[in-house]
Amino acid sequence: xxxxxxxxxxxxxxxxxxxxxxxxxxxxxxxxxxxxxxxxxxxxxxxxxxxxxxxxxxxxxxxxxxxxxxxxxxxxxxxxxxxxxxxxxxxxxxxxxxxxxxxxxxxxxxxxxxxxxxxxxxxxxxxxxxxxxxxxxxxxxxxxxxxxxxxxxxxxxxxxxxxxxxxxxxxxxxxxxxxxxxxxxxxxxxxxxxxxxxxxxxxxxxxxxxxxxxxxxxxxxxxxxxxxxxxxxxxxxxxxxxxxxxxxxxxxxxxxxxxxxxxxxxxxxxxxxxxxxxxxxxxxxxxxxxxxxxxxxxxxxxxxxxxxxxxxxxxxxxxxxxxxxxxxxxxxxxxxxxxxxxxxxxxxxxxxxxxxxxxxxxxxxxxxxxxxxxxxxxxxxxxxxxxxxxxxxxxxxxxxxxxxxxxxxxxxxxxxxxxxxxxxxxxxxxxxxxxxxxxxxxxxxxxxxxxxxxxxxxxxxxxxxxxxxxxxxxxxxxxxxxxxxxxxxxxxxxxxxxxxxxxxxxxxxxxxxxxxxxxxxxxxxxxxxxxxxxxxxxxxxxxxxxxxxxxxxxxxxxxxxxxxxxxxxxxxxxxxxxxxxxxxxxxxxxxxxxxxxxxxxxxxxxxxxxxxxxxxxxxxxxxxxxxxxxxxxxxxxxxxxxxxxxxxxxxxxxxxxxxxxxxxxxxxxxxxxxxxxxxxxxxxxxxxxxxxxxxxxxxxxxxxxxxxxxxxxxxxxxxxxxxxxxxxx
Length: 729
Description:
- By secondary structure, this protein is α+β, with helices and mostly antiparallel strands.
- The protein has 22 helices and 23 strands.
- It is elongated, with a radius of gyration of 38 Å.
């Protein structure tokens, strides 16, 4: 796991001994006197400072692993669940480094019932010979001294995850017990640590010492087993090792090290998880494929390359310029969704905070898409002409919409920002990743590179992302403007009411002819009239910018005063209800569908809360005696006529008047059927109505729109559904 010997061939299956008993141990040998002395010293130092004295005796030095126990957050990031999990990662990372060096094929982890954690690999085994400078075994040095390991140069590991030489020692420092078994050279070597002190357990009795227990094994198998019990006194009471997170991390590692098998067995009493066993052969491509939701826009694009760089490092006490080799591997694809999933790794270590490698990828990706893929995009060219500020270049968020990518770099001695290794800091890596990303993606985008259908689909997707971002910004600006509007800044054609709030109504009226009677017949206390004079945009097919540019849609949003789209705030609405008042004919149905589609797309909460209504003006009216009858369809007209003629009255004596539009009604008629709360008929519109309206608005555009070619194609395609005998041809 942290060997210092020479590289060996991949081992066969390992035969490490069975794990020790899960019973909690008790130690007969204690350090009570030493602990008491330390307490006295600490108390004396504290008293000295509190008394105002500050001299040489006030300066404390922490020996060995004391610094880790004193400030664990500096080494594992905190004392919560993340810190506890970090202990597992430190040991697992060492085992994975053996696999990355092609010297191990599996790593097995067990979470025991008594809170012990066990990690087993079939690597070369930690060296056990005597360390030349410490006069104890290398095995003891690895687990008891900070900055001791085999990963400070390129002699043993070309690229590894454990780099600071503190991982195994930190785990020991923050554990009450740690047992390690090493199998190599036909022998089994064992060493334990009790409260960081080396020794061996004889049953439950612990005997201090540095001598290893050795047992001859008739096997050439090699490997390392580490079994430790975290010191839970140092962790938050709620800290816990999350088996699901371990499984997720293991799957990730298997993709990073193809051919490595990793298992997890959770034997804890409160666990109901199944054993985990996983191996991958396809590497980063399989990783990206597994994480790709929805339909693909492109296939998986792989980028890889090797470059060298130089950096200055201390060598034998002198700052020396050395040459490093960096290998870059990237797998990526775009899917039809919107959320990006970009993860990065250094060697076998995930870097959730990114770093220089991810910065290089991000910058190159944005640059190559703007300079190559979207350079001559027509949609963006039109947008640039409309956008006076010229901010139509794709941003990082635009180009990563729907992107699933894994970025991995491999090189020796990377510089991390912090011991937890969450962010890469090596400066030269940014330029290397940027160059490889730019050049190879440029080839993929250009003719002769990637499939043209995929390149075009990606260009359309990202151009739409840019257009939506520009429109969203405009929408936000409009919302801010609408929220600040007072009654004097309302649309000129709005006949506003005197009182606003939940009981107020915004009545949308079709045309100026109906607006006059509506204004005269309304209750101006709580009813506002907004006549719609122009064409309503079809919000189901138009872009957000097109919707916001539509004069009628803008008038509705401004009158409501609550914004639009994601920015719509129903609590800020000036009216509690919207009432749609249109003619009872095909044109009226079309306008009603368009309005409902607009509300569904940009003021959806009004529908969700049941605050949208449609007034139901009659299609026919008849006066018989002193009573007025109204019919809303031909069928209802005939039924009423039949009811009225059950006596001696003849059907031709019932004179029905057909309204061609709301403009034909006088003020009293319109008030009675559409405005007076006591006599009008309103239909509450729902989300289901809105979804049907989306489809209906689309069909209206086909059959009644200005695009003759689309209408012709539709009629030709559906001509077989029409009975020719019914046609007058």
